[in-house]
Amino acid sequence: MGAFDKTTFTDHGDIRVLHVPAELEVYTAPSLREASVNAVNDGRYHLLVDLSQTTFIDSTGWGVLVGMRNRVGRYGGTMRLAGPISGGVNSGLKITGLANVFEIVGSVEVAIGAGDEG
Protein backbone atom coordinates (compact mmCIF):
# COMPACT_ATOMS: atom_id res chain seq x y z
CA MET A 1 0.00 0.00 0.00
CA GLY A 2 1.28 3.43 -0.95
CA ALA A 3 1.11 6.75 0.80
CA PHE A 4 -2.19 7.72 -0.80
CA ASP A 5 -3.97 4.47 0.01
CA LYS A 6 -5.45 6.01 3.13
CA THR A 7 -8.24 8.56 3.33
CA THR A 8 -7.12 11.96 4.58
CA PHE A 9 -9.31 14.87 5.64
CA THR A 10 -9.50 18.63 5.90
CA ASP A 11 -12.08 20.70 7.75
CA HIS A 12 -13.80 23.71 6.20
CA GLY A 13 -16.20 25.29 8.67
CA ASP A 14 -18.83 22.66 9.51
CA ILE A 15 -17.81 20.46 6.58
CA ARG A 16 -15.26 17.66 6.83
CA VAL A 17 -13.79 16.84 3.43
CA LEU A 18 -12.64 13.25 3.10
CA HIS A 19 -10.00 12.85 0.38
CA VAL A 20 -10.35 9.34 -1.07
CA PRO A 21 -7.48 7.40 -2.68
CA ALA A 22 -7.30 6.50 -6.39
CA GLU A 23 -8.91 3.12 -5.75
CA LEU A 24 -11.65 2.66 -3.18
CA GLU A 25 -11.72 -1.08 -2.73
CA VAL A 26 -11.48 -3.86 -0.18
CA TYR A 27 -8.01 -2.76 1.03
CA THR A 28 -8.56 1.02 1.12
CA ALA A 29 -12.27 1.26 2.03
CA PRO A 30 -11.65 0.56 5.75
CA SER A 31 -9.62 3.79 5.93
CA LEU A 32 -12.58 5.77 4.56
CA ARG A 33 -14.96 4.05 6.96
CA GLU A 34 -12.68 4.84 9.89
CA ALA A 35 -12.36 8.48 8.79
CA SER A 36 -16.15 8.83 8.59
CA VAL A 37 -16.68 7.22 12.00
CA ASN A 38 -14.06 9.55 13.47
CA ALA A 39 -15.80 12.52 11.85
CA VAL A 40 -19.11 11.63 13.49
CA ASN A 41 -17.36 10.99 16.80
CA ASP A 42 -15.84 14.48 16.46
CA GLY A 43 -19.32 15.94 15.94
CA ARG A 44 -18.77 16.47 12.20
CA TYR A 45 -22.06 15.53 10.53
CA HIS A 46 -21.58 17.24 7.15
CA LEU A 47 -19.24 15.19 5.00
CA LEU A 48 -17.94 15.91 1.54
CA VAL A 49 -16.29 12.93 -0.14
CA ASP A 50 -13.58 14.10 -2.54
CA LEU A 51 -13.53 11.60 -5.42
CA SER A 52 -11.48 13.82 -7.74
CA GLN A 53 -8.51 11.40 -7.61
CA THR A 54 -10.61 8.22 -7.51
CA THR A 55 -10.81 6.10 -10.66
CA PHE A 56 -12.20 2.81 -9.28
CA ILE A 57 -14.70 1.79 -6.61
CA ASP A 58 -15.58 -1.83 -5.88
CA SER A 59 -18.59 -3.19 -4.01
CA THR A 60 -16.85 -2.76 -0.66
CA GLY A 61 -16.25 0.91 -1.42
CA TRP A 62 -19.86 1.48 -2.50
CA GLY A 63 -21.01 -0.21 0.71
CA VAL A 64 -18.84 2.09 2.83
CA LEU A 65 -20.23 5.16 1.02
CA VAL A 66 -23.83 4.06 1.63
CA GLY A 67 -23.02 3.29 5.27
CA MET A 68 -21.48 6.75 5.69
CA ARG A 69 -24.58 8.40 4.28
CA ASN A 70 -26.77 6.46 6.68
CA ARG A 71 -24.47 7.21 9.64
CA VAL A 72 -24.51 11.00 9.21
CA GLY A 73 -28.21 10.91 8.36
CA ARG A 74 -28.96 9.57 11.84
CA TYR A 75 -27.58 12.85 13.19
CA GLY A 76 -29.37 15.08 10.70
CA GLY A 77 -26.17 15.45 8.73
CA THR A 78 -25.43 15.36 5.03
CA MET A 79 -22.99 13.63 2.74
CA ARG A 80 -22.12 14.73 -0.76
CA LEU A 81 -19.74 13.41 -3.38
CA ALA A 82 -17.41 15.83 -5.14
CA GLY A 83 -15.59 15.39 -8.43
CA PRO A 84 -14.76 15.77 -11.13
CA ILE A 85 -15.78 12.14 -11.06
CA SER A 86 -13.96 9.75 -13.41
CA GLY A 87 -15.81 7.87 -16.13
CA GLY A 88 -15.47 4.54 -14.32
CA VAL A 89 -16.79 5.89 -11.03
CA ASN A 90 -19.58 7.74 -12.82
CA SER A 91 -20.57 4.51 -14.59
CA GLY A 92 -20.59 2.70 -11.24
CA LEU A 93 -22.89 5.36 -9.79
CA LYS A 94 -25.33 4.88 -12.66
CA ILE A 95 -25.17 1.08 -12.76
CA THR A 96 -25.78 0.75 -9.00
CA GLY A 97 -28.52 3.39 -9.00
CA LEU A 98 -26.53 5.40 -6.45
CA ALA A 99 -26.46 8.39 -8.79
CA ASN A 100 -30.04 8.91 -7.60
CA VAL A 101 -29.08 8.51 -3.92
CA PHE A 102 -26.06 10.76 -3.54
CA GLU A 103 -25.89 14.49 -4.14
CA ILE A 104 -22.97 15.07 -6.49
CA VAL A 105 -21.17 18.39 -6.87
CA GLY A 106 -18.60 19.37 -9.49
CA SER A 107 -15.69 19.99 -7.14
CA VAL A 108 -14.68 20.43 -3.53
CA GLU A 109 -14.20 24.14 -4.18
CA VAL A 110 -17.75 24.52 -5.48
CA ALA A 111 -19.16 22.63 -2.49
CA ILE A 112 -17.15 24.62 0.05
CA GLY A 113 -18.13 27.86 -1.68
CA ALA A 114 -21.78 26.84 -1.30
CA GLY A 115 -21.54 27.44 2.44
CA ASP A 116 -21.15 25.44 5.60
CA GLU A 117 -24.71 24.19 5.81
CA GLY A 118 -23.58 20.88 4.33
The appropriate CATH architecture is 2-Layer Sandwich
* Cα-based radius of gyration, to the nearest Å: 13 Å
**What's the CATH H-level homologous superfamily?**
STAS domain
Main sheet properties: 5 strands, mixed
Number of helices: 4
Order of the strands making up the biggest sheet? 1-2-4-6-7
Question: Which structural class do you get from the secondary structure elements?
Answer: alpha/beta
CATH class: Alpha Beta
Distance between the termini: 32 Å
Could you name the CATH topology?
Answer: Transcription Regulator spoIIAA
Q: State the share of residues found in helices, binned by percent.
A: 25-40%
- Give the percentage of residues in beta strands: 15-25%
User: Could you state the order of secondary-structure elements as H and E?
Assistant: EEEHEEHEHEH
The strand count comes to 7
Overall, the morphology is globular
Number of structural units classed as domains: 1
In the predicted model, the low-confidence regions spanning at least 5 consecutive residues are none
Mean of residue pLDDT? 92
Tell me what the structure shows.
The chain has helices spanning 29-41, 59-73, 87-96, 108-113, and strands at 8-12, 15-19, 23-24, 46-50, 56-57, 78-82, 103-105. A five-stranded mixed β-sheet has the order 1-2-4-6-7. A two-stranded parallel sheet has the order 3-5. It has 118 residues and is an alpha/beta fold. It is globular. It has a single domain, classed as Transcription Regulator spoIIAA (2-Layer Sandwich). The model has no long low-confidence stretch (mean pLDDT 92).
